[in-house]
Design a protein that fits this description.
Shape: elongated
Bound molecules: NADP nicotinamide-adenine-dinucleotide phosphate, manganese (II) ion
CATH class of the largest domain: Mainly Beta
Structural class: alpha+beta
CATH superfamily of the largest domain: Probable inorganic polyphosphate/atp-NAD kinase, domain 2
Number of domains: 2
Pfam families: NAD_kinase, NAD_kinase_C
Helix content: 10-25%
Catalytic activity: NAD(+) + ATP = ADP + NADP(+) + H(+)
Subcellular location: Cytoplasm
Protein name: NAD kinase
Cofactor: a divalent metal cation
Largest sheet: 11 strands, antiparallel
Number of strands: 16
Oligomer: single chain
CATH architecture of the largest domain: Sandwich
Order of helices and strands: EHEEHEEHEEEEEHEEEEEEH
Strand content: 35-45%
Number of helices: 5
Length: 265
């Protein structure tokens, strides 16, 4: 089996990376950054997001596991003192895998530029360029739902629902549900402009299309990636066909992670 390790880059994470590498080499596992079967992220949830995007082209052949060197993470849920246990588990393949849904974002352009397709593990956010309000039609399953006017929109995956989405008062969604959630950022609501105000949870195959009303240039984030898109015709969001795979060696129920992250230390 081949493995690769992505470190956050600080001293603690780097040291842990080398320790894990040495242990796994000792079990005759091969370090291969190009085609790993397993990717170990050492740092935080942000580090796992980086690892995910590094290997997004081979999700079917890669399983992720996250070790946290700071606070408990949602993706990084192994502690440094569990490393030896983790290494033994890894060496004793096959391991169990859990799959989480992803968000597919397809951006289409008015003129001849080819469409762009992205996969997000946490979320996609859409804001207007240069800080003015975002004005965009929200089209669900081909039918116009509302014209949104405000700071922006956040479309998240279930596992991303505890990140930016939560700060927008979105619901926390269990990652066994194949769904995406659309949450508003400071919508303008008065006699003229009206939005639903509540986050919407869409099932698989209910596509949400965002269509510009006037402006066509947007600041778009895909997880930690910040991208500017110009001359946009539409931003299509739906549950992706692809899934992300996490290696699972012991039960750590999602609601327990939620509780330990947000309710108690
Ligand atoms: P960051 O600014 O370091 O991340 C913000 C925080 O979100 C960090 O504490 C990070 O954990 C945590 N986080 C990431 N994914 C999470 C998840 N699925 N559930 C719960 N917490 C999560 O930037 P980053 O590390 O590159 O992460 C990018 C993410 O930041 C974006 O995907 C977005 O969700 C989030 N974000 C949140 C807000 C907000 O809450 N207002 C605003 C912008 C972006 P670690 O410290 O372990 O990395
Ligand atoms: Mn971070």
């Amino acid at each position: 089996m081949k493995f690769s390790i992505r470190s956050k880059g600080d001293e603690t994470s780097n040291k842990l990376k080398h320790q894990i590498k040495r242990y796994l080499n000792g079990f005759n596992l091969i370090y291969d950054e190009d085609e790993p079967d397993i990717v170990i992220s050492v740092g935080g949830d942000g580090t796992l997001l980086h690892a995910f995007h590094q290997y997004v082209h081979r999700l079917n052949d890669t399983a992720f596991v996250g070790v946290h060197t700071g606070h408990l993470g949602f993706y990084a849920d192994w502690t440094p003192d569990e490393i030896e246990k983790l290494v033994i588990h890894l060496a004793k393949t096959p391991f169990q895998v859990v799959e989480y849904p992803l968000l597919e974002v397809t951006i289409r352009f008015n003129h001849d530029e080819e469409e762009k397709r992205y996969l997000a593990l946490n979320e996609c956010t859409v804001k207007n360029m240069e800080g003015s309000s975002l004005v965009i039609d929200v089209v669900i399953k081909g039918e116009k739902f509302e014209t949104f006017r405000g700071d922006g929109l956040c479309i998240s995956t279930p596992s991303g629902s505890t990140a930016y989405n939560k700060a927008l008062s979105g619901a926390i969604i269990h990652p066994s549900l194949s769904a995406i959630q659309l949450a508003e950022m400071a919508s303008i609501n008065n006699r003229v402009f009206r939005t639903v105000g509540s986050p919407l949870v869409l099932p698989q195959h209910h596509t949400c299309n965002l269509k510009p009303v006037n402006d066509v240039n947007f600041d778009i984030t895909i997880d930690h990636l910040f991208l500017i898109h110009k001359d946009v015709k539409s931003i299509q969001c739906r549950v992706a066909d692809e899934k992300v795979r996490f290696a699972r060696f012991r039960p750590f129920p999602f609601w327990k992670r939620v509780k330990e992250s947000f309710i108690m230390d």
